[in-house]
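**User:** Once you have settled down, spend some time on the protein underneath, comparing sequence with structure tokens, and judge whether sequence predicts the tokens.
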Amino acid sequence: MPRLVTPQGPTTSRPAKSSLTGSSLGAGHPGDVGDDRADIAGAGSGGHGVVRLRLDLGYDGSQFHGWAAQPGMRTVQGVLSGALGLLLRLPQPPELTVAGRTDAGVHARGQVAHLDLPEQAGPERIVPKRTGSEQTGSEQAWTAAAPAVTARLNRVLPADVRVHAIRVAPDGFDARFSALWRRYSYRICDLGASADPLRRHDTLWHRRPLDLDLMNEAAAACLGEHDFAAFCRRRTGASTVRELLRFDWHRDEVGVVVGTVLADAFCHNMVRALAGAVLAVGDGRQPASWLSAVLAAGVRDPAVTVLPPHPLCLEQVSYPPDAELSARALLTRQVRGSAS
């Protein structure tokens, strides 16, 4: 059963037309999105209990400078935390921890985030209590009010962000570190005049025809656990070892080439670099064996192009059964502390 957790101490654009931009949304509010015990800055909950909420959401990344809050930039984290802070009347926007920290221009259908709220910041600040049976700010109160809170939040958010569901997180849940895997898609149209101009914001137009058999042959060589340093932007102290669980390409019902990439976690730029390498195989610039050679070399190859972000979408994040959430988070922290 979910329970209240006790806080462990304080935590340290492309602009779009919206009333929810700038400092009012905490776009520059600092915080470690990997901290699963991040408290509300300035909330001062002291010894009171904290309720952890899970948010399932999607967004059109076209007009965002990525997920993570940045000073002076319109980001998904900044817009969402600002809307929550506004509705909950908090002195500071709440900290959000996310499953996949998407880059500028990248979309999401199945993003997952969590936040911790002190008891006094209950749902009755957003919607009236329906009964008098739930304690203010309790898990029971949040469960009862979740549908109404979700609807109210979406009325405040801009049209390019939608929260699909809000629920009380089970014990041990961490949106980032409890995840088993993330699944991304990448769309490429190689059909020339048949390209759909209405999909230009989420599809790469490529002038050369693609051979999917060669692309899948090359992609298969990357499956399993490897050091993907050749396809990642290195970060100090971060491991580039990842386990690639699925990497394949198919044509959808209208002939667009869609890549599916699934892994326990991804390094920065990893998906777009892998897609760029496979694209070079598919259009004949490189042999199918080239991808495995680049992977084995372990260094960035100038022939590997990092493809544009707009055709990339975070489709799904998977978690273990509730009883295994804490153990999964602990394992992930021990193995690689920079999963994204």
In short: The domain at 182-316 is CATH 3.30.70.660 (Alpha-Beta Plaits).
